[in-house]
Amino acid sequence: MSAPLWPGAIAAGLVTALGIAFMWAENEWEVVAVLVAAAVGAVVARRTGWLEPAARAFRERESAMNRLAILGLFVFVAFFHDDHFPLLMAGTVLIYFLVCLGLTIQFGYAGMVNFAAAAFLGVGCYTAAVLTAHTAIPHLLVLAIGGAVAALVGSILILPVLRTRGHYSAVVTIAFVLLFKTFLEVNDTLGGPQGLKLPSMQVLGWTFNENFSVAGVEVSFYMSYVLVALALVIAAFALTRRLERSWIGLSLDAVRLDETAAACFGVHIARWKIVAFTLGNFMAGVAGALYALMLGFIAPTNFTFGDSLIMVSIILLGGIGNPWGAALAAAIVVVLPEKLQLIQEYRFLLFAALVILVLLYRPGGLLPRQLRVYLPGWKPR
Amino acid sequence: MDAGLLAQFVANGLMLGMMYALVAVGFTLFFGVLDIIKFSHGDVLTVGTFAGFSTYLGLQALGAANPWVQVAAVLLVATGSMAILGALIAKYLVMPLKSAPPLNILLVTLMLGTVLRECVRLFFPDGANPKRFPRLLPDDAVALGNFNLRLDSVLLFLAGLAVIVAIHVLINRTKLGLAIRAVAQDEETAKTMGINFTAIVLVTFAVGSAAAAFAGVMNGLYYSEINFGMGLLLGVIGFSAAIVGGLGNIYGAILGGFLFAALQTVGAVALPFASAYKDVFAFAVVIAIMAWRPTGLIAEKTSERV
Amino acid sequence: MSFARTLLAAVALALIAGGAAAQKKEVKVVFIGPLTGGVSVNGLGGRNSADLAVRLRNADPKAKYKYEMVVLDDECKPNVGVQVATKAASDRSIIAGATHYCSAVAIGTVDTYHKFGLPIVVWGAVLPDITYGNDYKEIHRVNGTMINQNQVNAAFSTGQGFKKFAVIHDTTDYGKGHNKYFSENLAKHGGTIVGTFGVTADQQDFNAELTQIKSLNVDAIYFGGLTPIGVRIRSQMEKLGIKGQFVGTSGIVSDAFIEGLGPLAEGALAFREGAPVEKLPGGQFFMQKYAEAKYAEAPEAYGAFAFAAMNLILDTIERVGPDRRKVRDALNKVNNADSIVGKITFDDHGQNTVAAITKYVVQDGKWVVWEDSEYAAGKRKLAGK
């Protein structure tokens, strides 16, 4: 009854190959060639209807597809096992994806705008920096504390965020992210504008910042961070998916679509908004703590309004509420500007123009969220 | 604190508030007719100012050196070209996305802002550097103790006031204003009453963008300096001011603008901590105000117009 | 640089170098600086200058290798900086690099360079800790630190009779560092600071700060920050009728400062590390070649350092061959090397110790070396005297 798996497998394989090719491309012609191939491939697949079986596989054979996606990522990192830069980029993409999973819960499910994602990422970063410098708390625990502190700081904003809606809510979070960055710069106790250094991450006596070898093959030290990031992303992804499917997700959807109606049916609006906001900030905080450890250095200029906008553009480009879309968009938004280094000072101009084009021609994002499937085989009429 | 100093702070704050108010009025007009936030507003201001600056350079090259002629031409070109740009943005970027989620418009206009800003930086000759904006107004000054009042500041303030009054009259006393208000209140009903919806939206965007260009030129004349990033912060502050005052209400925008200027001045001057914290202070107060009055200080009459 | 310009440059190079270049071994070097964002002026000026060094070398028939300069944008953000530093450092075909204008980026990336063993020469960042905060053999710097600059500044300013200062600094590491070292040194020379104001790097309006400064009746205003807000502060001082002397740092020694202010710039003081480029024979050569290359942007304050840094790297590669370790060791031993910014000698931290500080004053729309100015000769007077 269920859809065949192979179209999905082919799609996952192609995306992986494309990712490797894109990362591998060095000069302008190679980059352009890979981009053109990807664009043409996507259009052809849509026109010929080849995309539909793959989409069905994603919908109906989800757990198998999840495994395939993870496998694809493993192929990617195995291919670049001793190449530091692609692994750093892979780690960065995963960390941004983790933040965007949090934003998916906030924007996509509960319909709460949050333009302060960079600030909550920053709270996680600074928590990790302070804890690793002054305490001997195990680093895995530091990640969790980073998330908890971000959630705690977020609770300052809960009252104004709960009381306001839409654009009014946006201004609260924008004000917060501007305030956060200025505060970090002015206040010297947290390193001021010069930022803070972090030591290598250590788990069970294993120092992350050293290359290691597996069966005689030298592996980049970034591999350790990528694997931790991957583990966190898998956990967060599973949580997000489960949340969406559960009655909590149903309540959140109701809150987003119509607060008044939801309240009439007994959905506790404030409660679910607080849950979504706190959970999203927690994820951003965890991501931040890992990001700080991976980079080894943080400074206030990493946490500007502009950085928040990058996160928001990821979820909009991917398609609000669809974690798969966020994954794809995170990869594009993080890696594309990096590849545009070739055009140096013109790259932001081009990047902004590309985002406008995508949103004009695909207002729902690259992979819009599908309608909720209540029963196996159920189709919306 | 002596009276001269106090007067100086008040005068500076009023001037700053006037600029914020002019930007905020644009945000509130756009929100009124379309329920959207157009974030490229600040960068439209920048482009307008640079258009005005180019006009000045052109006049200078042609030998038309009368400062009053120059001021008039600079203002005319800046506001006129930005009115057109504003209408174009409305027609080709905002209207097509009218039915998309509001966040999309926000992001698209933000990205458009980046495009405009980067274009000024990269394509205006030596655009990455600050430019000296000419002094076109008489700069006689009166010094009363610590208070230094300059004629050009007074003229600029009065001109800003005149623009705000003009917009007020346009909205409240003309047939066009009636149409704008009708569209703002109910798009469908306005359409059935024979109002050309698209035309009204375009006109509103033109008016708002022209006001921003005016604020930009005012900024240039006041500070004698312009740069490609000037609109970024003015845009964010103008947006915050419009929100704090209450969207869709031009009095709210004016109130918000002056309030924000007051907060910054007080933050820099009258508080016991270092002046560098003044933005932290101003934004913290904004958050507090939003918690206290969730739909702005002057709340919209209809509770939610979604 | 657009594709078209890259192509043009490549064609031009091929024509100049002729067939001989084809047989030379290709060696890659990297330039990193801020090419986008608020301080991109300096990044672009630095990039052009470093590019000029490479072009001149490739045009030289005596050069042993053919050089290719990889250019990366750090956006003046530490996280992006670590990314591009990793990219450059993990690419084994890149032998060395001239890197970073922003101190926060440079301090964040030194670990990366050390870890991957890429020898670099900092061309613009002035924070002392970049070289002195570690023992990394890979890190060098041709420009001086903000300590040297402020020692000279404090001594000179008090010597000119300015005793009572107000300080405005931006809240980046650049401005805060300058504030710190200037305050320390001014106290040693008997000057006092009656008010310190931190401002954000994108602030437009300084009236609130300046009005307070006005009521303090200072002899001079010390400004620690870069050109854009320097221009704003100086012109708003005028608006409020503040008569004190304007004393700046290396961040305002740029043509843009003068263009942005016009006649108002007259009499502004500033200090920069390195011998005055204009007076050294190599410096004139640099200015002339830069003008000939017709770059769209001016070299700005640190262009000469970027040129000197890249040139030093190329010299070293020519001498010891394209090998990171050898280049690193040779760079550590650089002693009394000629450059367009004066002699370069690296101490055991890789810091250029011959950090002569040049005093500048704006006279008739130009940055003039103090000793040559009419102010020093007594024909004109500084403000606030």
Give the topology, please.
The complex is a heterotrimer of chains A (381), B (306) and C (385).
Chain A: H1 6-24, H2 28-48, H3 51-60, H4 62-79, H5 84-109, H6 117-134, H7 139-154, H8 158-163, H9 166-186, E1 196-197, E2 202-203, E3 206-207, E4 212-214, E5 217-219, H10 222-245, H11 247-257, H12 259-264, H13 269-295, E6 297-298, H14 305-318, H15 323-339, H16 347-361
Antiparallel strand pairs in A: 1-6, 2-3, 4-5
Chain B: H1 3-34, H2 41-62, H3 67-94, H4 102-123, E1 131-132, E2 141-144, E3 147-150, H5 151-173, H6 175-185, H7 187-192, H8 197-223, E4 225-226, H9 230-245, H10 250-269, H11 278-292
Antiparallel strand pairs in B: 1-4, 2-3
Helix pairs in contact in B: 1-5, 1-6, 1-8, 1-9, 1-10, 2-3, 2-4, 2-8, 2-9, 3-8, 5-6, 5-8, 6-8, 9-10, 10-11
Chain C: H1 3-23, E1 25-33, H2 40-59, E2 65-73, H3 78-89, E3 94-99, H4 103-116, E4 120-122, H5 129-132, E5 139-141, H6 146-159, E6 164-170, H7 173-188, E7 192-199, H8 207-216, E8 220-224, H9 227-239, E9 245-247, H10 255-261, E10 269-273, H11 281-293, H12 303-320, H13 324-332, E11 357-363, E12 366-369
Parallel strand pairs in C: 1-2, 1-3, 3-4, 4-5, 6-7, 6-8, 8-9
Antiparallel strand pairs in C: 10-11, 11-12
Helix pairs in contact in C: 2-12, 3-4, 6-7, 9-10, 12-13
Structural overview:
The complex is a heterotrimer of chains A (381), B (306) and C (385). Chain A is mainly alpha-helical and 381 residues long. Chain A has helices at residues 6-24, 28-48, 51-60, 62-79, 84-109, 117-134, 139-154, 158-163, 166-186, 222-245, 247-257, 259-264, 269-295, 305-318, 323-339, 347-361; strands spanning 196-197, 202-203, 206-207, 212-214, 217-219, 297-298. Chain A has two domains: 1-79; 83-361, Orthogonal Bundle (ABC transporter involved in vitamin B12 uptake, BtuC). In chain A, strand 2 (202-203) and strand 3 (206-207) form a beta hairpin. In chain A, helix 6 (117-134) packs across helix 13 (269-295). The longest helix of chain A is centred in the last third of the chain and has 27 residues, at 269-295. The radius of gyration of chain A is 21 Å and the shape is globular. With 306 residues, chain B is mostly helical. Chain B has one domain (15-229). Chain B contains eleven helices and four strands; from the N terminus they run H-H-H-H-E-E-E-H-H-H-H-E-H-H-H. In chain B, the strands form two sheets. Chain B has a two-stranded antiparallel sheet with strand order 1-4. A two-stranded antiparallel sheet of chain B has the order 2-3. In chain B, helix 1 (3-34) packs across helix 9 and helix 5 (151-173) runs antiparallel to helix 8. In chain C, helix 2 links the parallel strand 1 (25-33) and strand 2. Residues 17-21 of chain C have low confidence and may be disordered. Chain C has a five-stranded parallel β-sheet. A four-stranded parallel β-sheet of chain C has the order 7-6-8-9. In chain C, strands 10-11-12 form a three-stranded antiparallel β-sheet. Chain C has two domains: 3-144 and 276-354, Rossmann fold (3-Layer(aba) Sandwich), CATH 3.40.50; 147-273 and 359-372, Response regulator (Rossmann fold). Chain C starts with a helix and ends in a 16-residue tail after the last strand. The longest helix of chain C is centred in the N-terminal third of the chain and has 21 residues, at 3-23. Chains B and C meet through helix 1, strand 1, helix 8, helix 9 and helix 10 of B and helix 2, strand 7, helix 8, helix 9 and helix 10 of C.
